[in-house]
User: Which sequence fits this backbone?
């Protein structure tokens, strides 16, 4: 039982760290800026965010035979933590910095 709890704790910690670093890397500077951003730049940042998520989960997958943890519990906890970190980010404020193109 302790084996599974350790797997969940490590997965949550890793996912939380990745999620916070992703937010800091992609969105924090934009949130503090008064400049508007084009919607294409927003979509590029979202694509980079998805790539970071995939890379983080791929890392857990590749380390499954090296880490003395249960793979399923670890990867699910990682995904949950990254998802919750993304939900806690102030997305409304970020989207308010997107400049709508006039047609």
Assistant:
């Amino acid at each position: 039982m302790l084996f599974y709890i350790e797997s969940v704790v490590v997965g949550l910690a890793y996912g939380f760290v990745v999620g916070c670093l992703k937010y800091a890397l992609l969105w924090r500077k934009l949130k503090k800026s008064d400049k508007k951003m084009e919607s294409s730049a927003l979509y590029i940042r979202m694509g980079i965010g998805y790539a970071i998520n995939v890379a983080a989960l791929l890392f857990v997958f590749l380390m499954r035979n090296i880490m003395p943890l249960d793979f399923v519990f670890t990867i699910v906890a990682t995904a949950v933590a990254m998802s919750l970190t993304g939900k806690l980010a102030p997305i409304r404020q970020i989207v308010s910095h997107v400049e709508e193109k006039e047609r």
Summary: The chain has five helices and two strands. The mean pLDDT is 84. Strands lie at 37-38, 98-99.
